[in-house]
Design brief:
Layout: E1 11-17, H1 24-32, E2 39-45, E3 49-56, H2 57-62, H3 68-79, E4 89-94, E5 98-105
Parallel strand pairs: 1-5
Antiparallel strand pairs: 1-3, 2-3, 4-5
Length: about 110
């Protein structure tokens, strides 16, 4: 197993065309990137694509199920490649909670 599999995230997403969904292997890959044993399906639509995946249930609770900051970051990355991280890793800070780590693959 590579070292990338050892790193887990609060949010794991994959960019897809607007008219496609995730296949079985993508779902498994994304779910395996989450910390914890449960995830909530999550989707962010941008101008020309959509990011689909999961939010770890505990991180969703920490955010009080308000995903606005995560959605804004993901939408910005999807709409403008200048914000793209080569290692697919991003982070959003929440007051009184700390950072929620995001994995977003294009």
């Amino acid at each position: 197993m590579g070292s990338d599999m050892e790193v887990t995230y609060g949010v794991a997403l994959k960019e897809k065309p607007l008219d496609e969904g995730l296949d079985r292997w993508e779902v498994i890959e994304l779910f395996d990137k989450l910390h914890g044993a449960s995830g909530i399906p999550f989707e962010v639509q941008a101008e020309n694509s959509v990011a689909m995946g999961f939010i770890n249930r505990l991180d969703a609770e920490f955010m009080n199920y308000d995903y606005t900051k995560v959605e804004e970051l993901v939408r910005r990355v999807l709409n403008d490649m200048q914000y793209e991280s080569p290692d697919c890793r991003y982070s959003v800070h929440f007051k009184n909670v700390g950072d929620i780590d995001i994995w977003l693959s294009r």
